[in-house]
């Protein structure tokens, strides 16, 4: 090992077990919810999340770069998702009025109505695969744990700076 490089802090057996359970559990829950949504609506969880995020902001419009950051998607992945959604009339891309280099994504009225119609089934799936299995106390614990892994303070400041509030839209 060269000078300055330190031995990694390896996970102990309990940490390794917890890490693997996190990977398996999160993948299974997300796959199940995505499968339900796709089977019932033809939309992916990523497409649904785009619609939800847009439904939460004034004018149902958000700059593509901000939307990508909010969804933790690469810009190219979001562009492909939005292109598919545009083809079915759920969203439209428009030039930013205040910055012609930027592109906004807007949820159409048809997209908003589609979101409203499919939200109950999606929420039932989230309940079935996660919320009801954990129960209220563990669900609160999960939320607290996941909040440790995100920059909620930064997200709140960003939302306030852009005139947004916490979500009240169907999740």
UniProtKB/TrEMBL annotation:
Lineage, broadest ranks: Bacteria, Bacillati, Actinomycetota, Actinomycetes, Micrococcales
Protein name: MarR family transcriptional regulator
Residue intervals of the HTH marR-type domain: 15-151
InterPro entries attached to this UniProt entry: HTH_MarR-typ, MarR/SlyA-like, WH-like_DNA-bd_sf, WH_DNA-bd_sf
PROSITE patterns associated with the record: HTH_MARR_2 (PS50995)
């Amino acid at each position: 090992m060269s000078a300055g490089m330190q031995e990694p802090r390896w996970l102990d057996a309990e940490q390794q077990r917890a890490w693997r359970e996190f990977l398996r559990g999160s993948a299974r829950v997300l796959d199940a919810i995505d499968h339900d949504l796709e089977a019932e609506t033809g939309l992916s969880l990523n497409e649904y999340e785009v619609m939800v995020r847009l439904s939460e902001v004034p004018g149902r419009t958000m700059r593509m770069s901000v939307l990508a950051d909010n969804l933790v998607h690469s810009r190219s992945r979001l562009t492909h998702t939005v292109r598919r959604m545009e083809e079915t009339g759920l969203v439209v891309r428009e030039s930013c009025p205040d910055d012609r280099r930027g592109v906004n994504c807007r949820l159409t009225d048809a997209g908003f109505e589609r979101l409203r119609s499919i939200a109950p089934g999606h929420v039932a799936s989230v309940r079935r695969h996660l919320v009801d299995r954990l129960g209220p106390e563990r669900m609160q614990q999960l939320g607290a744990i996941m909040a440790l892994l995100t920059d909620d303070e930064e997200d709140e400041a960003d939302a306030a700076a852009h005139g947004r509030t916490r979500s009240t839209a169907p999740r």
